[in-house]
Amino acid sequence: MNKGNKLYEGKAKIIYETRDKNLVIQHFKDDATAFNNLKKSKVEGKGVLNNRISEYILSNLSQCGIKTHLVKRLNMREQLIRKAEIFPIEFIVRNIATGSLTKRLDISEGTVLEKPLLEYCYKKDELHDPLISKEHIYSFGWATEKEIKEIDKISLRINDILLGMFRGIGIKLVDFKIEYGKAWNKDTEEKEIVLADEISPDTCRLWDVKTEKKLDKDRFRKDLGNVIQGYQEVARRLSIMPEETNISEVNFGKTTSIKFKKK
Ligand code: UDP
After folding, report:
1. How many folded domains does the chain comprise?
2. 0.70 exceeded by the pTM?
3. Which end of the chain is more exposed for a tag (fewer CB within 10 A), N or C?
4. Structural domain includes residue 142
5. Ligand 1: residues within 6 Å at CB?
6. Nearest to residue 176, comparing CAs of 200, 211, 193?
7. pLDDT tens track, the chain, 263 positions
């Protein structure tokens, strides 16, 4: 699949066009940002790991009947995806209180929520992605009531599947952010809602069940060190990286040297 012009460059990914107007290429960068771009750094190998982890998770979701934008992984850093018109909303699902929720409402860190909590944020960097209600979404036409009803149902289903997937490898899924878009379905000749973007340690909070050690982007946000080792641990437990690979011995200048298991 030939890579065409750059369509969009975000904080962690780049989108390129292809010859097919309904397909684009998603490239995972090593750039890490937090606190609305105030903190920036390169975490070598992060893009390679996120590409692989997100491919694994989205493929599994797809097998469970969730429609996603993923077509296939192309190489170490790139995926072929369906072009989607992204809703300008970040959909957050929480199982355990932490992060902005604890600060905003003075909820104790680590409170296990009785049922998953769905939140919506308006995707607007200049405004620091503010929390919004469904009424805001409808008022400003960011999505319809019908679309949000469908998305809420999919988000809760994704949460169920991921809770189980991570629990099976000794990880608590604390919370995560997902994005959705509308993509063309050539069979029905209509647009349909698909899960877009990525699901990776950049977009989830993942804690070791026993030690509560953080294996996600909070290692970067909170300067906990060993960021890539956290991501690598997730990949290893998902069995997409061989046990013996030690990231500290890998020269990420040559990312092709990372050994992954063949599918
Ligand atoms: N999240 C994300 N991108 C964002 C904001 C949040 O992927 O721009 C994820 C974050 O990793 C966490 C969840 O969404 O898994 C909830 O994040 P929270 O609102 O607590 O954000 P904080 O401001 O504390 O990072």
Report:
1. 2
2. yes
3. C
4. yes
5. 90, 92, 99-101, 129, 175-177, 203-205, 217
6. 200
7. 789 999 999 999 999 999 999 999 999 999 999 998 999 999 999 999 999 999 999 999 999 999 999 999 999 999 999 999 999 999 999 999 999 999 999 999 999 999 999 999 999 999 999 999 999 999 999 999 999 999 999 999 999 999 999 999 999 999 999 999 999 999 999 999 999 999 999 999 999 999 999 999 999 999 999 999 999 999 999 999 876 665 544 444 333 345 566 55
Which atom, in ligand 1's list, is nearest to the CA of 203? 7
Q: What is the DSSP string of 36-102?
A: TTTEEEE-TTHHHHHHHHHHHHHHHHHHTT--BSEEEE-SSSEEEEE-EEE-SEEEEEEEE--THHH
**Structural domain for 47, as ranges:** 6-84+227-260
Beta bridge partners of 96: 112
- Pocket probe mutation, ligand 1, options 35, 100, 216, max atoms within 8 Å of Cβ: 100
CA of 174 relative to ligand 1 center, distance in Å: 11
Residues 238 and 185 in one domain: no
Residue 157 lies in a domain: yes
Query: In the structure encoding, which two tokens stand for residue 136, read together?
Result: 């805001």
CATH number of 78's domain: 3.30.200.20
Question: Which residue is closest in CA terms to ligand 1's atom 14?
Answer: 177
Quick one: 133 and 232 in the same domain? Answer: no
